[in-house]
Amino acid sequence: MKANAMTAVLGAALVLPLTVTSWSGQDAPMKPRQDTGMKPMMMTVDQAMVDRITSTWKAEPKALAAKIIAKYGMPQEASANRLIWMNNGPWKWSELVNEEIQHDFPMPHHDMFKQVIAWKVPADKFDDLAEYDGSVIVERTKGEVSARCDKEEANFLAINLAYDVVMGKKSSDAARKAYTEAIGEMKHPEYMKGFVFTPPAGMQGDPDKATIDKSKMTMKQPK
């Protein structure tokens, strides 16, 4: 190809509109990069994007998405099967997924909405929490505890009772009974309106202890 023809082709390529793939999998126009050091532009999640993403969702998570947005606004992250809110209200983060996870305690329903707080739970309490509610999830390394249900009120209830278990105020069985009473008999309403304790602030993670001294390891040479 002659030099002047090649220059013309390259010049045309520089003005072609670029695209960036959003979390929804759709291509959206993006301004041409002025130099190779420019980072891709992050797209803002808006109602049109959420509507497009949730249009094919299962019925329950789709309906819940509208309720959560009405309370907390647009999520900060959105992909084909999940919406994520960061630092929404008293929560460290919240995640709504396009799933209907069967959960029969205290009565049959679907889990889909996980909400997280920072909390360093003693390892010897993990079994107690697992016996109390399988949808209360403890992450030791990250220092997070989450509850996953189909509504925020149930998540408040689950974590408030988890706190009672960890603090020795209730056994696992007593917490299950209180949860059942709250849902089935509308008892303990304060446990469903917000936290009855102050969630810890700052990093709560437990990085554990090293059992291998890296400085004494012999690096194997690649073959």
Relative helix content? 25-40%
- Counting DSSP E segments of at least 2 residues, the number of strands comes to 8
| Overall pLDDT score | 85
Oligomer: single chain
* Main sheet: strand order: 3-4-5-6-8-7
From the spread of the alpha carbons, the general shape counts as globular
Order of helices and strands: HEEHHEEEEHEEHHH
Span between termini: 44 Å
Radius of gyration: 24 Å
What does this structure look like?
The protein is of the alpha+beta class and 223 residues long. The protein has helices spanning 3-14, 47-54, 59-72, 126-132, 152-166, 172-185, 190-193, and strands spanning 18-21, 27-30, 77-79, 82-86, 93-103, 109-118, 136-139, 144-149. The strands form two sheets. It has a six-stranded antiparallel β-sheet. Strands 1-2 form a two-stranded antiparallel sheet. The protein has a domain at 47-193. A hairpin with a 6-residue loop joins strand 4 and strand 5. The chain is globular, with a radius of gyration of 24 Å. It is built from seven helices and eight strands, in the order H-E-E-H-H-E-E-E-E-H-E-E-H-H-H.
Features:
alpha+beta; disordered N terminus; 33% helix; 223 residues; 7 helices; six-stranded antiparallel sheet
Question: Can you describe this structure in just a few lines?
Answer:
The protein has 223 residues and is an alpha+beta fold. Helices cover 33% and strands 21% of the residues. It has helices at residues 3-14, 47-54, 59-72, 126-132, 152-166, 172-185, 190-193; strands at residues 18-21, 27-30, 77-79, 82-86, 93-103, 109-118, 136-139, 144-149.
